[in-house]
Write a structure and sequence with these properties.
With 179 residues, the protein is mainly α. The chain contains eleven helices and no strands. Helix 1 runs parallel beside helix 3 and helix 6 packs parallel to helix 8. The longest helix is centred in the N-terminal third of the chain and has 13 residues. The protein is globular and about 50 Å long.
Length: 179
């Protein structure tokens, strides 16, 4: 068996191991792990799916868009997993999904809004900049820092200054979405 098959067989015996493997790949992506991550998307655990999707965003060209699309369209997928899947597909070039990111920005879920804030950093329009500005004013730190970081990535100098202020002098902020 190939190395991916061996890794998956080992990890598939224990969902926690598979989740940790996906989490590790989200932090340090590898382009040769697309098949493993696609298989991880078939697991029941949102923890595993979330980290597999994060890893797929950071390893473009893995060729797993069909599996990600299935997750995005599956009625049983949670709103946060659908948001991650749409963000992953958008980041891979499926720009027609931008409306899904804008919709997610208005979700009642903090996790979904955080994903939207990261994803909107890939949309350089007046609407995205306005949406990010509003998300950056949220009291939910994860959403606010993701929005400010995305605005900074789009070249907003006020946001760059806020990031420098927070890193250098402010209280720590943490975003769980890996952009």
């Amino acid at each position: 068996p190939g190395s991916v098959d061996l890794l998956f067989k080992t990890a598939s015996r224990n969902g926690e191991v598979l989740g940790l493997m996906a989490e590790s790949l989200a932090a340090v992506p590898r382009n040769d792990m697309g098949e493993l991550l696609a298989r991880a998307l078939r697991e029941q655990s949102d923890f595993v799916k979330k980290h597999a999707l994060q890893a797929l965003v950071r390893a473009p060209g893995s060729g797993e868009e069909d599996e990600v699309r299935k997750v995005a369209e599956a009625p049983e997928s949670s709103p946060v997993i659908k948001a991650y899947a749409n963000y992953t597909l958008f980041a891979s070039g499926q720009k027609q999904l931008a409306p899904e990111l804008f919709k997610a920005a208005h979700s009642s879920s903090v996790d979904v809004r955080e994903v939207a804030a990261v994803g909107l950093g890939l949309v350089d329009t007046k609407e995205s900049r306005e949406t990010l500005k509003a998300l950056g004013k949220e009291t939910e730190q994860r959403v606010a820092v993701a929005a400010v970081a995305s605005s900074a990535a789009l070249g907003d100098q006020d946001s760059v200054g806020k990031i420098i202020q927070v890193v250098g002098y402010g209280k720590p902020m943490e975003a769980s979405v890996m952009a």
